[in-house]
Amino acid sequence: MTDIRTNWTRSEIDTIYNLPFLELVYRGASVHRQYHDAQEVQVCTLLSIKTGGCPEDCAYCPQAARYHTDVKVHKLLEVEEVLGKAQEAKQAGSTRFCMGAAWREVRNNRDFDKVLEMVKGVNGMGMEVCCTLGMLTEEQALKLQEAGLYAYNHNLDTSEEHYGEIISTRTYQDRLDTLNNVRKSGISVCSGGIIGMGESQHDRIGMLHTLATLPEHPESVPVNALVPVEGTPLEQQPKVPVWDMVRMIATARIIMPKAMVRLSAGRVRMTLEEQALCFMAGANSIFAGDKLLTTPNPDVVSDQEMFQILNLKPRAAFKEGEAPVHFEQIPSAQQ
User: Which of 27, 44, 96, 130 is catalytic?
Assistant: First the structure.
């Protein structure tokens, strides 16, 4: 069994990342099988519960108020609407429901009270509940934990060295402080990043090194490929090669063996064969539905077909007594 380590060096991670491609995939697959069922992939749904108007300047994000994009701003959704969307997601095969709000940080106000009600409601459905709401204090994290929040997403985005090229409205340490507050509250940590933002290989390895040397590894590590959006500073960035995605996934799998490695944004631009390579290398989670917050995503029917072709099975929620949902049990949208 591969040891769980939090003392990785950059040099060690660099060596792994730069292994011959097929050797890297083989090692990632081997570690994956030690800790996970290689046929299981968790199906998650991500819903934007408050869209646009964000005061931050994240160069990749169409929800930043300062950029001119086609994103339509809307205030926080009502609790009933969100719970209805969660029920639809569960019926479509998702076992994890993520709620994202375009906030810089959580504020102790009526909107936060509504989010707590949403968390309680989704938790009551037997789904893993995740939120991504921006910066979070320890007190706020505890309130979310008491409401039943299972995971909190707060991505590092990139390396500390490259961070200033992407974001100026909050610091790298702000992100690490939020992760620490989440960890102290007892909520599981979801944190990864985005590749394709003009970063170097050194930056990619730096981001993985930061994640893998936290006191505890994140339980969930999303690997996103940039989806360039017109109107943002990164709109002209080229498509990320699948080989880079696979290297990131396999390296993350090897250095953080127990984590759920999530094949996240950018999947809409990948073929079935390219996604299969990612699963082979150690990815074991996807986001389902036609949209990830504001960017496009493969539709449910395409994912159903992919699961059938690759003989994958949806992973059950971590709640006790939650039965796994199988795609073949889900009515096709074409029927």
Answer: 130
- The two structure tokens encoding residue 9: 């060096």
- Is 220:190 a contact under the CB 8 Å cutoff? yes
CA distance 256 to 217: 6
44 belongs to the catalytic site: no
Tally of structural domains, the chain: 1
- Of 59, 82, 84, 83, nearest to 69 by C-alpha is 59
CATH number at residue 134: 3.20.20.70
Cα–Cα distance for residue pair 8/10, rounded to 1 Å: 7
* In a domain? residue 328: no
Q: What is the pLDDT of residues 269-293, one digit of tens each?
A: 889 999 999 999 999 998 876 555 5
Length of the chain, in residues: 335
The reply to whether 162 falls in a domain is yes
Residue 131 marked ligand-binding: no
**Which tokens is 68 given?**
């001119």
Is 190 noted as a catalytic residue in this protein? yes
pLDDT digits (tens, 9 = 90+) for 211-227: 999 999 999 999 999 98
